[in-house]
Amino acid sequence: MASVNMSYLDPTTLMLIGIPGLQDVQFWIGFSFFAICLMALLGNTILLIIIPTEHSLHQPMYVFLAVLAATDTGLCVAIAPKMLAIFWFGSCSMAFDACLAQLFFIHALQGMESGILLAMAFDRYVAICDPLRHTSILTPSILVTMVLVVAIRAMVLVGILPILIKRLHLFHSVVIAHSYCEHMAVVKLAAEDIRVNKTCGLPVGFTILGFDMIFIFISYILIFQAVFRLHQKEARLTAFNTCTAHIFVFLEFYILAFFSFFSHRFGHVAPSTHILLSTIYLLVPPALNPIVYGVKNKVIRKRVARIFLLIRHSQQ
Question: What cellular-component terms does GO give this entry (predicted)?
Answer without folding.
Answer: plasma membrane
